[in-house]
Known about the structure:
Blueprint (H helix, E strand, L loop, with lengths): L4 E8 L3 H13 L4 E5 L3 H12 L9 E4 L8 E6 L15 H18 L4 E4 L4 H12 L6 E3 L3 H15 L6 E2 L2 E2 L7 E2 L5 E2 L2 E2 H7 L5 H23 L4 H15 L4 E3 L2 E5 L5 E6 L2 E4 L2 E5 L6 H21 L1
Parallel strand pairs: 1-2, 1-4, 2-3, 4-5, 5-6
Antiparallel strand pairs: 7-10, 8-9, 10-11, 12-15, 13-14, 15-16
Amino acid sequence: MANLNDRKAAIIGCGFVGAASAFALMESGLFSEMVLIDANRDKAEGEALDISHGLPFAKPMKIYAGDYADLTDAEIIVVTAGANQKPGETRLDLVKKNVGIFQSVIPQITRYNNNAILLIVANPVDILTYAAIKISGLPENRVFGSGTVLDTARLKYLLGEHLAVDSRSVHTFIIGEHGDSEFPAWSCTNVSGVPLSRFCDMRGHHNHEKAMKELAETVKNSAYRIIEKKGATYYGIAMSVRRICEAIVRDEKSILPVSSMQNGEFGISGVALSTPVIVGKNGIESHVPLQLSDEEMEKLRRSADTLKTIINDLL
């Protein structure tokens, strides 16, 4: 097994999400080499060429279309390969198609590289993260999904707009399934250390419960709304991929709500879903023990049960 090149990334799947992620990673300056792999070689070559032509405006980098043998020394492998979510289709409708794709893709990856970090982005991300862990046999800390990193960013953005405050000063997490059973951990939400309800009062918002319910629904339905209007979502998730890769490459030990295997955390086991974890150069370092309310704990367990039902039917 070749030594890994910590400046090399690979992206498998060059659809909207894969191509946007490749562009975001090029812009980040984190990597000096990036290989794009797609079942349609021409698509990968076209995307690599298109992005490469902008390199005189960015940092020097080698971007090319390749095949699985080119994964040998990649430090991070981003897997976006899968069927797209169609209008009116839930993320969970995609399950059977995409698990089938993973059963052919993941063994190809591990044939050439079983030391990289696998970042699963294809949907439904929690089921596919679980499938990737089981199919690959790689350590659980090195296989995780983009999870609710984007959902959490959406909530921060909306709270920032609602409160007329910089969204980066909002501290909150969407947890659970990246899908219809996800929910905000309101009991842990604050704005620069000030509890949310107190900050809302300060900004002249007093109908907390109604506003919080509406914000949570807006976040949950964001993807459906974007798909309805433009056919697919890809910029937001591409920026989430960049953020996660940044935490890994720079060993930032950032706390991010990625989708990871649960082994007793919050009383949940045998399923991958999103809760905050510390992310660094070795992948997931440890889970972060959020202090959830009893109601939130129940919601998290229900979210886990939703995913387990699908896993039991499938795998």
